[in-house]
Amino acid sequence: MVPLKRRKVVGNYTGAGHGGDNSPTKFPDVLLFLLERKMGASRRAFLSQLGRKKGFHVEELFSESVTHVISENNSGYEVRTWLDSQRRAQGQMMAHLLDISWYTESMRAGHPVPILERHKLQEQHNDEGEAVVFSVPSFACQRRITLDNHNTIITGALSLLAENAELSEEDGRGVAFRRAAAVLKALPEPVTCMTQLRGLPCLGEHSLRVIKDILENGESNEVESMKQSERFKALKVLTGVFGVGAKTADRWIREGIHTLHQLRDSGHALNRAQQAGVEHYDDLNQPVTMAEADAVGEIVEKAVVSVLPGAQITLTGGFRRGKPSGHDVDFLITHPEEGREEGLMSKVVSWLESQGFLLYHKTSRNSYLESANGPARPASNMDRFERCFSIFKLAKVEGWGTNQTGTWREGGMQNLNTAEDEDEHEGSCGVRGHARINPEDSRLQKGKNSHSQSQIHTGEQKYHELGKDAGPEETRPAGHKPWRAVRVDLVVSPISQFAFALLGWTGSKLFERELRRWAGQEKAMSLSSHALFDNKQKRYLTATSEEEIFGHLGLEFIPPSERNA
Predict the structure, then answer these.
(1) Tens digits of per-residue pLDDT, 493-538?
(2) Contacts 24+ apart (CB under 8 A), 438-442
(3) pTM of the predicted protein model
(4) Phi and psi of 33, rounded to 5°?
(5) CA 504 to CA 526: how far, in whole Å?
(6) Going by C-beta distance under 8 Å and a sequence separation of 6 or more, which residues neighbour residue 268?
(7) Which end of the chain offers a freer environment for a tag, N or C, measured as fewer CB atoms within 10 Å?
(8) 330 included as an active-site residue
(9) 6 vs 10, 104, 112, 202, 375, CA distance in Å?
């Protein structure tokens, strides 16, 4: 990760006028003042400098000569109250109170654009009897967001728009919709009118239009139309194939492939991952339940402890955050002695293969290099740990038929996932915290919990007990399969990087993105799943727990159950 450059902050008291910028003023009758409140000093300095380069006169201090006051995420009432508190607004205020959208549109046009009604800040007082106006911090990593979402219809619609943008490789728009949804998830009660949203961060014009449509009509016409579009349906189907990304899906769609049946008949040469994805498509697109995650965890624990006693294994992702289901199961593995974890993955994979648990796997070596000058930009957004992407063959066990997330039916689980689950790409399972594995307290010991050793079938046992020869034909419905395929990701981390890896793999994806953005923009630091680098001090900051990392970043610690941004 390349450290984000810290923008030079121009102080508020460098004097009136251009603050040292010698760019000529093209519009002498327009004097602008950017309000720092909710905008932040760094962003204000950047926008002020941009305006001056475009020929605008941007004042550092407010004065009666200012003609346009620009603010971000504030109501007109809030701006006027702030100006009054500064004792800058004597007599009648003659300046236009404008939203940041007017300023950015003027920057793009290269001249002051006409002031439209949508640019004006509303003079909205928060009197008694009005709906409560909400307030949340600007960064998602500052908010406590549980699974108790009071605005699921709105956040679901915004999440679908984000997913569509990401499938169309418009990542910027996708992030914008994700951030807007995260703000709604943080609200303590349902939104009932648009006035409640005034002053909230991350709610752009597009998101606000969608929210307004839902509040007035019960649904968003844009979202409903998108869901019915042939392209969106095809992208959902094709990217549901394990090993297929948006680019490949888009190429297939342009070739006329829209369904799994058409893909099978197309004669396309698929790689190993895609072949496995097609073969196990139904299973891999059904939610993984808590019980299944626990059962996979017991298998992985047995594999790890058999090759490296004393190792530590943690389930990460959505289950660690309290989610009842997910798309896959992710495990983080380490050892208390630095270096003992080296070579562990190949041994674990060999054990799993020998027991018949792996339908597919692909491993990669640890390629992380720590430079004294700070971390370099990685080749992708992925971290560099030793890992194994795999598909497990998990036996169906009696007693798993009914649970919180669905019921068994022919061909797999009943799919009860909603659009809210679609943003969980960094690991969707993991719970039970951080457990040291040893023969004395391992959950794999018989009788120690509800999923006892008898419920974990090795490959040989499964073929014998649950295969085609297992009992009379009438005991199984037609088409019944005694096992299901489950995506499982295994990651091995050195103990020195474990706290950073645990934080990164716990998610949610947006929460981690916001943590990195906070580190870069507010603290001049570079955060990854490997390390935290202070760009001012030019040194790495060590941590043995997530709490220490939050402390380094100057943030209040937020437990996993409240990171569901």
Answers:
(1) 999 999 999 999 999 999 999 999 999 999 999 999 999 999 999 9
(2) 438/305, 438/309, 438/310, 439/305, 439/309, 442/301, 442/302, 442/305
(3) 0.68
(4) -135, 125
(5) 13
(6) 252, 257
(7) N
(8) yes
(9) 12, 21, 29, 21, 16
**Amino acid identity for residue 558 in this structure:** I
Kindly report, residue by residue over 111-148, the tens digit of the pLDDT. Answer: 999 999 888 887 654 443 456 778 899 999 999 999 99
Please answer whether residues 319 and 326 qualify as being in contact, where contact means their C-beta atoms are separated by less than 8 angstroms: yes
Lowest-pLDDT choice from 88-92, 297-301, 359-363: 88-92
Q: What whole-number distance in Å separates Cα of residue 271 and Cα of residue 268? A: 10
pLDDT higher than 80, residue 418:
no
What are the CA-CA distances from residue 210 to residues 213, 220, 229, 255 (Å)? Answer: 5, 6, 18, 33
| Joined tokens for residue 298 | 């017991």
Question: In this structure, are residues 468 and 308 in contact, taking their beta carbons and an 8 Å threshold?
Answer: no
Cα separation, 347 vs 353, in Å, equals: 10
Is 294 part of the annotated catalytic residue set? no
User: CA–CA separation, 184 vs 201, rounded Å?
Assistant: 10
Q: Is 469 helix (H, G, I), strand (E, B) or coil?
A: coil
Instruction: Work out whether strand 525-527 and strand 483-492 pair parallel, antiparallel, or are unpaired.
Output: unpaired
Q: Do residues 199 and 135 touch, judged by C-beta distance below 8 A?
A: yes
Dist. CA 149–CA 189, nearest whole Å: 8
Omega of the bond prior to 168 within 30 degrees of 0, cis? no
Q: What is the 3-state secondary structure (H, E, C) of 474-521?
A: HHCCCCCCCEEEEEEEEEECCHHHHHHHHHHHHCCHHHHHHHHHHHHH
Q: b/e string for 20-50 if b means 16 or more Cβ within 10 A?
A: eeeeeeeeeebbbbbbbbbbeebbbbbbbbe
What do you get for the CA distance between the two ends of the chain, in Å?
A: 22
Report how far residue 52's alpha carbon sits from residue 27's, in angstroms, rounded to the nearest whole number. 11
- DSSP states of 58-81 as a string? EESS--TT--EEEESS--HHHHHH
Cβ atoms of residues 327 and 487 within 8 Å: yes
Return the axis-axis angle of helices 152-167 and 246-254, rounded to nearest 10°. 70
| 412-413 and 483-492 strand pairing | unpaired
Predicted pLDDT of residue 373: 65
- Whole-number Å distance between alpha carbons of 322 and 146: 9
For the question of residue 383 being annotated catalytic, the response is: no
DSSP, res 383: -
Q: Which of 99, 328, 383, 423 is catalytic?
A: 328
Helices (H), 65-170: 76-85, 100-109, 152-167
SS3 138: coil
Query: By the 8 A CB rule, do 532 and 543 touch?
Result: yes
